[in-house]
Every structure is written in structure tokens, then in C-alpha cells.
Amino acid sequence: MHPALAPMLDRAAYIGGFDGVSGVLGAKLIGITPSGTMPHPLILIFGDQASAWKAFDEVIEPSVPRIALVDTLYDEKFESILAAETLRDRLSGVRLDTPGSRRGDFLDIVREVRWELDVRGFKHVKIYVSGGLDESSVRRLAEGPVDGFGVGTSVSNAPTIDFSMDIVEVEGRPLSKRGKFSGKKQAWRCERCHTWQVTLFDSEPPKCPSCGLETTPMLKKYIEKGKVVGELKPPKLIREYVLEQLKHYELE
Ligand SMILES: [Zn+2]
Questions:
Q1: How far is the CA of 247 from the centre of ligand 1 (A)?
Q2: Which domains does the chain have, with CATH numbers?
Q3: Residues with CB under 5 A from ligand 1 (ion)
Q4: pLDDT digits (tens, 9 = 90+) for 38-51
């Protein structure tokens, strides 16, 4: 990935509903504080987990949650217990970043870690998972005691959605290439059931074919002759709008 794309990916991920991003520049552009946890090399450089977790706790500014990475050298269960016994009340959470080849049933491992932390009185310690996650594995793991997910690759390398921009009208005259519908269009949406319709631009608002409600035109002009003419909303407000709309759609 080209480094210049990273802030745009951060922004898109945030607008799409992610709670935070780890990229410093991306977070700055969005207007939020970047968030992240420790990497495996920290543990490897110290040579043992407890020294690395203690050093992180000593050095990193207090506002950063203490989330210990717990799958570097031993089993997730034993490293989680070790992390909780090392940092006690100061430990905010543990992160399991286990590669698929070592995972077995990840949901069972997460349930086991939750159980072992709970029986030792570490109910306050949250569980975060990461490593090769996508929308399917997140949905499955969300059935278990997972408090947060770290997702990278499936966002930065998301499948493409095929689309094209075509000339459909020239000087007010409908004209388009083969296979494309000519004439300037308007897209209408029913605000109750989110059924979409496309008509010619100057058509009367159609009624929703599903529920009969009036529909709303969805096209807005943002650029005219190279000048921005629409109101550009901050990422936080766009995100709220996206999350409100997502309630109408299924992940299929
Ligand atoms: Zn409707």
C-alpha cells in the first residue's frame, strides 16, 4: 500500500464505523486520538513478557490503556493470567493476536481466557482479538466474550466494488454508450424501509414500491465548475449518519 493512502484508509474505516485508528496522521485528519497496543517485537526484544509489560506500564503515558499482548511465547491462557498477575488493577486488557496456524477454535480459546481471568478475580480485564480478522470471523467471535477487535488487512485490502462513470447526456440530450441507460438520473430512497429507485432527474418523486411512503432525492451537488459548493461535514458526523443507515442493512 502506498503510504499516502493510509490516512484515507483510516478516515474511511472510521466513517464506516470503526471506533479508532492507529495511524497518527489519519487520526489527526479525523480529529481523534490515535489508539493502539504493544507489538510482538517489544516482547521479543525484552526476552520475557513480564519485563516488557512492566516497561510499557512505566514508560507509556497514563492516558493509554494498558493492553498486554498475550500470545508471543506461551499459551494465551497462561500469558493472560501472567499479565493480570503482573499488572493487577493497572491492566486494562489483553490482546490475542494468534496466527490461524496456531489457533484451533479461537472462540473456545477466548472463552477459556475469560473464564480463567474471572475465576482469579480479574473481571475488569477486557479481551481484544486481532490477526487476519474479517467481517465473518468478527461476527462469529462476537458471540463470545470479546470486548474489541483489531482489523487491518481486510480493511486495507477490501474487495473492490465495480463501478464506472459514464456520459449519459450531452448538452441536455440523452446519449450514452451501449449497455448504459441514457439521460440524467435521480436516485430516490424511502426513509422508512430504505428501498431505492432510479428515475430520470426531473421526474416527480415516486412512491416507495414496498411501503407506499414518499421518497427522498439522494443526489446532492458538492462541486460545481471545480468549486466546492456543498457543505462538507466532519468525519464524526458522517460516521453517525453511516451508522444510522447501517441499521437498515444486513451483512450479506
Ligand atoms: Zn418504504
A1: 15
A2: 36-156 (3.20.20.70), 169-246 (no CATH)
A3: 190, 192-193, 195, 208, 210-211, 213
A4: 999 999 999 999 99
